[in-house]
Amino acid sequence: MRSDILSNASRAVRRAARWLAAPALALALAACGGGGGGGMPASTSNPNPTPSGCSAATCGTTVVTFTDATGDFTTYTVNVTSLQLTAKNGAVVETLPAATRVDFTQLVDLTELVTAAQIPNGEYVSASMTLDYTGADVEVDVNGTSTAAQTVGTNGQPLTTLTLNVELDNAHHLIVNGGTLSRLALDFNLAASNSVNTAVTPPVVTVQPFIVATVVPSATKPIRVRGTLVSVDTGAGSYLVSVEPFDDQNTSRGQVTVNTTASTTFEINGTGYTGSAGLTALDALAAGTLTVAYGSFDTTTLAFTATQVLAGTSVQMPGMDALYGIVTARSGNMLVVHGATLQSHVTFAEQFSPKDVTLSIGSGTRISVAASPGAAPTVSWPSVGSLITAFGTAGTDAGGNPTFDATAGFLRLELTSLWGFPTAAASGQVTLNLQSIEGFAPSTFNFTGTGGGTPASGDANPAAYVVTTGALPITQLMPPPAALSAGTAAATAATSGPATRFVGLVQPFGAAPPDFNAFTLVNYANADAQLAVSFGMSGSSSGFTTVSATELVLNLAASPSGSVHAIRIGPELIDLTTLAASPTIVPSTTGMGPFGIRVTQSGSADRLMVFDSYAAFEAALATALTGSTSVLKVVANGSYDATSNTFTAAGIGVLLQN
């Protein structure tokens, strides 16, 4: 058996770079209001999920957001049928007006605003989420192929529905007051919730949902607010939307106001704008037009400020299907799109495609560039390695393979993420030993035709992939950690630089070198890392050697052969058993929590406790680790310093069994 951390990066990691162009979003408490007509479907349901008897004095608005931690899935789509809050006095409130179909792999680097529900005033101490696996689409990567998996419970039986109760931190209950805005953030941790066995056919995913909930979430991920336009206030620099998350165009989940600034970028009906010009263009659209805004959340002021807004046909073209994915080859105007998701214009349902999609573009295809209003792209710009969103007509060829015709449609180049080891640097330029583009190994791509001149003379070479960096501080890339020379998936020579992530745009097709134009970089010291250690299905009563107020140390000797015990940083896998000692896990001093402990108890309901401070978490963990308690799994997210062999954790999840 191998767990999720040991295979290729999830589709979420690959797709999430689409959202990296948008680091901020503004949201404020809004009054109730109606929707309008326009080209997109308007909600016909109650605009706010409002319990009977609610008024401005007796109820407040609670914004609920979903996010996720990475896991080994190409898609993980289930129905969330209920999300209930329990007050201190025992009262229970339902916050979802209808079942919500969620692909959790989309939420690794993104937070989705799910509802802005009217909640009766009170102090809420726990949340309860019900997941329906009937008709779920859960697929894992098996040797480069997306393969449907069977989901089972810990008893080995196929799953139907699961309900998990989450206790909020005693020091941070959800307080709801009339006329105010509060927030509850839920994180469905794929790595902690699932164990994957790809040694059998079909693969088997054993599910123990691990969900944490907090009212003081970190602000490290961009937030997406999706909904239909209600009204625009150009004077205030804001607009009002009726929330419709996850491409759900049937049920409104309340209304919110999205604020903008002079630097907010807009793409409206395929045309780019910045600042007030974008808001003016938005004001010209009909009520009911679909909008999407991305950004970050201010946890102190409960204010959100938008940096990227999409609207109209830039979100969905009437009568056209949608395609999202990564271009892995191009010949003329025929592109191969891998890891693709297709969305029907009839049902608006998304469907992950395990097969490559052949995309046709032409002179009639409108092209735009995400978050770049001033760009003037042509049909030659989409190249090998480009992350794209396209609108057109989905179909199949004579062999039943998926096709997509965008010759009379639209294509947007999204910001793309890649990882590599720097091997040479010059002014404004770095050469990489390329390790992945959007999580896919270089062997996935056919770079033929990417270069100019005679055939193959300038084609991109993964062993010497040239990235323009402008004013980015590439000279500050730290020396490679010696500890990574063994046990990694992509060991590097001592003369090369550390694993580095760049975000930007691929050079237009036929115009390389350079091969990639970077806007941002994340070097090894700041890269997101995930540590996961499994102690088998039965667990171990000696899973920790140290549990203290300052650190945790895992007993790797208690992790059975074949179980997971690794740190993943981008394309790198560090097998912890190859290190001289188990890493010391220390709490982060910034952006901490939440921390969770799930205790499986024979003969009684599982208990999931959440803590917003490491101190409270450590005290509860020390108390829970009795001689009869087994440690099943430990998952931590943060950053890893190989020189000191220290993992700095922003969040930790521990699964225990009594």
Give a quick set of tags describing it.
43 strands; mainly beta; five-stranded mixed barrel; 658 residues; single chain; OB fold (Dihydrolipoamide Acetyltransferase, E2P); disordered N terminus
Q: Any chance you could write out the topology, listing elements then pairs?
A:
Elements: H1 11-15, E1 28-29, E2 59-69, E3 75-87, E4 92-94, E5 100-103, E6 111-120, E7 122-142, E8 145-148, E9 150-152, E10 161-167, E11 174-176, E12 181-189, H2 190-193, E13 194-197, E14 204-207, E15 211-214, E16 223-233, E17 238-243, E18 255-268, E19 271-274, H3 276-283, E20 290-298, E21 303-311, E22 321-331, E23 334-343, E24 350-353, E25 357-360, E26 366-369, E27 387-396, E28 402-414, E29 416-426, E30 429-437, E31 465-468, E32 500-506, E33 516-522, E34 529-534, E35 544-547, E36 552-554, E37 565-569, E38 572-575, E39 584-587, E40 595-600, E41 607-611, H4 614-624, E42 630-641, E43 646-657
Parallel strand pairs: 2-12, 6-16, 9-14, 10-41, 18-21, 25-28, 26-28, 31-33, 39-43, 40-43
Antiparallel strand pairs: 1-18, 2-6, 3-4, 3-5, 3-7, 7-8, 7-10, 7-11, 12-15, 13-14, 16-17, 16-20, 17-18, 18-19, 20-21, 22-23, 22-27, 23-24, 23-25, 27-28, 29-30, 29-32, 30-31, 32-33, 34-37, 34-42, 35-36, 36-39, 37-38, 40-41, 42-43
